[in-house]
Amino acid sequence: MKNVTDSFVSLGRWPSAGSFGLNTDILATNPINLSVVLGVLIFFGKGVLSDLLDNRKNRILNTIRNSEELRGGAVEFLEKARARLRKMEIEADQFRVNGYSEIEREKLNLINSTSNILEQLENYKNETIYFEQQRAINQVRLRVFQQALQGALGTLNSCLTNELHLRTISANIGMFGAMKEITD
């Protein structure tokens, strides 16, 4: 390795031989070499670099435009979703209010129908009681009438003789004859 470094160091000591020579002084040759390299790069790479930068700029602008369009669509979608949400909340409130009023209405209808049914049942009960009372009264009347008739027949049979019986029949026949003459 020492031979390689010695050969470079020895190059730095060559005297210049005319107009062309190798200057090994790094501080003096570096800015010149860099400016030449940069000049060549700028001259030849200017078009390529500007094309790359323009392409990059166009891609960034397209990305920004697409992002703006997507953002606009997202904002529009969000507004529509919010509007639908408000509409659904209003409908839910209406259903809730209507549901409560419907429940109250059904409750009142049920109370009224139950009251009507109870009133009808009370009327049926009263009619049944009245009917049963009338039937009981009629049965009592029938029994009283039967007993009175049996008593009257018993009294008549014991008091009625054949002669009295014949006179009663004759009187009744006479009354029927008189009634027939009046109606004719």
Automatic annotation (TrEMBL):
It is a single-pass membrane protein. It is found in: Membrane; Plastid, Chloroplast thylakoid membrane. The keyword Transport applies. Its main location: membrane. Keywords: ATP synthesis, CF(0), Chloroplast, Hydrogen ion transport, Ion transport, Membrane, Plastid, Thylakoid, Transmembrane, Transmembrane helix, Transport. GO terms for cellular component: chloroplast thylakoid membrane; proton-transporting ATP synthase complex. One of its GO terms (molecular function) is proton-transporting ATP synthase activity, rotational mechanism. F-type ATPases have 2 components, F(1) - the catalytic core - and F(0) - the membrane proton channel. F(1) has five subunits: alpha(3), beta(3), gamma(1), delta(1), epsilon(1). F(0) has four main subunits: a(1), b(1), b'(1) and c(10-14). The alpha and beta chains form an alternating ring which encloses part of the gamma chain. F(1) is attached to F(0) by a central stalk formed by the gamma and epsilon chains, while a peripheral stalk is formed by the delta, b and b' chains. PANTHER family: ATP SYNTHASE SUBUNIT B, CHLOROPLASTIC (PTHR34264:SF3). In plastids the F-type ATPase is also known as CF(1)CF(0). Belongs to the ATPase B chain family. This is ATP synthase subunit b, chloroplastic. It comes from Bruguiera parviflora.
